[in-house]
Write a sequence for this structure.
């Protein structure tokens, strides 16, 4: 029989639980913490004192409550002092942010990604953004670690042997993020990211959709949801999936490649080598093609089509309807398989969904099983474009929240 | 999601002289949900909203709020119940700043002077609660705001007063794509924060993007109120232009006779079969 957890383990766990609570919910009074965590008042007091001594939280008397009695002290995360760096490598830009405990974006920088540059070549640019931000960091600030979200990366840094989809033939600049083509260069990227961006602290690498679903689940549109799917479009289509509150990564970290779900056998060729993948029907490329603007590419061109549709351009409207129809087709399949509480449309899919919601919903209502579709909520990201950065920071805060005093 | 409606209208009739504008209209609004109210021009949407907000009095019918029958004879009665309307023209004053607009006519005082710090703080908290990030300064004049930002201020003004039902009349009309998206997200967030929201819109994409229920008016009659998860775009268009679609909506000769709504009542799904079996979805 296994011995029960030691007092030390319990204490560490309680410290983590308390810190996580104020990290997620923001400033909380001791009285609320007592009931939320199910610990007694003196324990909360002692834990708070330890965290305050480590300068992770601070305690202050609240404003006038207007009620009788001594008001309960309010515990706040030290957002301005405890921070992580978050990076996002996207198809056409690089973003970096300094995110404080509690999910507050303290500082942010952005740079264009040189067309066609593989992720490795972007590292100096990211390091430059970091350096700029680092100049304004206070002396006594606590740097916890870094998180990186990369469009089109597998879920776990140690994932090996993935055959990455090759580049789209007619849009060579599109998915340089996927050009790794195997475990070798992926591992090299992980190592290089660590060396260049975070030599002295841990760095966690994740996929953009995964980081986003984490952020939305912790503090966005999917708070309290059991099962959530975040569909992300940045060039390709991928999904971050949370089932029973846990990220779904699959065995090797390759789960969530919903863009390669085949929806039309014998359809258009896909960059993965197959044909008729969902991606070939709903991607930016498909929308532009349907609108007769196959020559252009990227986010801005996509938004121009949606804008044209809203002003009554018949060709653009037909294209948006067609893509919306296919979007609903795939979403209906996902709803039948996962029975999610919420599906979140991120990246350019946000605009596509809002412009074609009638199509998406109608398709879903016809195809999905009633039990699964009645409760599914279709949402756009509450954190907007910040979701990916906040999610990357969330990963970086993970170790701290698991064991706050182990540094 | 609560299964019982917060606001329920039963058998509402309203005539202007010889013209009967609303006939035996049933309509319900649930807290935590967006109920879209759709219909062609002249179907009676605006009249229905004005009956709810106390601008028009109803000829006959019953209004039930939070389980008890109420009479709404003036806008003051509606405000006392927590019913706020954001009209298309927004009714904001260009020469006042955001805080002044939000408290216009209901200013907070401390003693003889206006309590500016409290008002500013309440305004800031309301906007933060709605995750509004587009407004830079609360002391900015409304004349300097974009269409979407004005809509945001008008909506925030409506939710400032612990309101429980917010009615939005065409909030995305005349907005560009980016601002429409922001306003739709705001509408959704109001409901996710627990308010009952009524959205009047002609844009079916907006309706399907954010609504939980769709109520369809046709020539002054409520032809159906259905959950958004059980109806298609084509059906909604048919219902508001022809009054029926397959087994849904009015039956017989378009209900020109006074009893035409009798059958439509039977077809309605005010309380869908799922509402009771659904597990407690937390919002």
């Amino acid at each position: 029989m296994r011995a029960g957890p030691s007092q030390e383990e319990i204490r560490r766990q309680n410290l983590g639980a308390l810190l996580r609570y104020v990290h997620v919910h923001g400033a909380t009074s001791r009285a609320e913490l007592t009931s939320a965590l199910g610990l007694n008042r003196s324990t909360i007091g002692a834990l708070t004192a330890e965290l305050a001594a480590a300068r992770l939280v601070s305690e202050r008397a609240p404003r006038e409550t207007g009620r009788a009695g001594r008001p309960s002290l309010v515990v706040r995360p030290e957002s301005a002092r405890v921070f992580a760096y978050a990076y996002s490598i996207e198809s056409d830009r690089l973003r970096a942010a300094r995110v404080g405990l509690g999910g507050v974006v303290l500082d942010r920088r952005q740079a264009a990604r040189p067309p066609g540059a593989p992720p490795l070549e972007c590292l100096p640019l990211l390091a430059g953004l970091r350096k700029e931000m680092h100049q304004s960091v206070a002396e006594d600030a606590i740097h916890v670690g870094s998180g990186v979200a990369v469009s089109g990366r597998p879920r776990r840094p140690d994932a090996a042997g993935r055959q990455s989809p090759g580049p789209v033939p007619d849009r060579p600049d599109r998915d340089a993020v996927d050009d790794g083509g195997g475990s070798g260069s992926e591992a090299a990227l992980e190592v290089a990211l660590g060396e260049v961006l975070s030599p002295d602290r841990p760095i966690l690498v994740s996929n953009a959709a995964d980081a986003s679903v984490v952020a939305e689940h912790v503090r966005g549109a999917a708070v309290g949801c059991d099962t959530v799917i975040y569909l992300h479009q940045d060039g390709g289509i991928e999904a971050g999936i949370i089932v029973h509150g846990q990220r779904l990564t699959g065995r090797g970290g390759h789960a969530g490649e919903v863009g390669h779900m085949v929806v039309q056998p014998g359809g258009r060729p896909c960059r993965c080598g197959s044909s008729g993948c969902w991606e070939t029907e709903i991607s930016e490329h498909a929308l532009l093609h349907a609108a007769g603007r196959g020559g252009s590419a990227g986010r801005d061109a996509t938004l121009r089509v949606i804008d044209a549709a809203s002003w009554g351009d018949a060709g653009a409207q037909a294209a948006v309807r067609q893509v919306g129809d296919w979007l609903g087709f795939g979403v209906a399949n996902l709803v039948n398989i996962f029975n999610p509480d919420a599906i979140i449309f991120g990246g350019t899919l946000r605009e596509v969904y809002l412009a074609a919601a009638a199509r998406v919903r109608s398709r879903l209502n016809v195809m999905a099983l009633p039990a699964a579709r009645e409760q599914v909520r279709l949402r756009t990201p509450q954190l907007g474009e910040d979701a990916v950065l906040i999610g990357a920071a969330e990963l970086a805060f993970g170790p701290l929240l698991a064991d706050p005093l182990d540094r | 999601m609560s299964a019982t409606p917060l606001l329920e209208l039963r058998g509402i009739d309203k005539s202007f002289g010889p013209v009967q504008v609303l006939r035996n209209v049933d309509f319900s609004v649930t807290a935590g949900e967006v109920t879209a109210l759709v219909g062609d021009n002249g179907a009676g949407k605006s009249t229905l909203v004005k009956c709810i907000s106390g601008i028009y009095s109803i000829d006959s019918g019953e209004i039930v709020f939070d389980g008890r029958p109420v009479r709404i004879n003036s806008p003051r009665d509606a405000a006392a119940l927590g019913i706020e309307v954001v009209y298309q023209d927004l009714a904001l004053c260009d020469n006042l700043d955001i805080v002044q607009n939000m408290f216009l006519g209901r200013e907070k005082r401390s003693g003889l002077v206006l309590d500016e710090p409290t008002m500013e703080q309440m305004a800031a908290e309301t906007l933060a609660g709605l995750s509004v990030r587009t407004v830079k300064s609360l002391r900015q004049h409304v004349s300097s705001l974009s269409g979407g930002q004005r809509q945001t201020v008008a909506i925030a003004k409506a939710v400032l007063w612990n309101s429980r039902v917010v009615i939005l009349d065409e909030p995305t009309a005349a907005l560009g794509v980016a601002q429409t998206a922001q306003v739709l997200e705001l509408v959704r967030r109001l409901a996710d924060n627990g308010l009952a929201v009524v959205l009047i819109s002609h844009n079916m994409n907006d309706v399907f993007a954010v609504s939980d229920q769709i109520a369809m008016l046709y020539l002054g009659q409520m032809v159906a109120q259905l959950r958004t998860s059980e109806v298609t775009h084509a059906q909604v268009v048919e219902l508001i232009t022809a009054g029926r679609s397959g087994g849904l909506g009015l039956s017989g000769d378009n209900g020109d006779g006074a009893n035409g709504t009798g059958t439509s009542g039977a077809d309605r799904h005010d309380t869908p079969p799922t509402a009771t079996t659904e597990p407690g979805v937390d919002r």
